[in-house]
């Protein structure tokens, strides 16, 4: 097994991924708790760094999987209440559309929501999403296709 970074190199190893980890955590638990989740995930990654195997893939999917796990734990410890009114001016058309989309995304099945978050909001490519979700790239493409169909139904818009 190829081990993870050395204690001296850990900072340099995770630093390029911090923005992506934070975006994913914010999608999972909300912006207010994202810093806590990323911090918790980095502690866990530090503790488990010897289990990282470079032969199995790049560090980003491994780190995102830890963020996903820490996000789930965070949600079970604390019920997240999303203040949807804080999204923007409720009188503004764009804010209402964003609010409708966010509500629809929250209603997706967990696997579809995860694929949408990783692909559209975190900005990962299909291959990396597949690594994080531990499935084939074709499965990710199919899941995204299904999610778009579900969103069309939930929003009532054929242009999603």
TrEMBL record:
* Residue ranges of domain RNA polymerase sigma-70 region in the record: 14-79
> What Pfam families has UniProt attached to this entry?
Sigma70_r2, Sigma70_r4_2
Q: Which UniProt keywords apply?
A: DNA-binding, Sigma factor, Transcription, Transcription regulation
Q: Where is the RNA polymerase sigma factor 70 region 4 type domain?
A: 100-150
Q: Which InterPro entries match?
A: RNA_pol_sigma-70-like, RNA_pol_sigma-70_dom, RNA_pol_sigma70_ECF_CS, RNA_pol_sigma70_r2, RNA_pol_sigma70_r4_t2, RNA_pol_sigma_r2, RNA_pol_sigma_r3/r4-like, WH-like_DNA-bd_sf
Its family? Belongs to the sigma-70 factor family. ECF subfamily.
Database matches in NCBIfam families: sigma70-ECF
Q: What is this protein called?
A: RNA polymerase sigma factor
User: Which source organism does the UniProt entry give?
Assistant: Nocardioides ginsengisoli
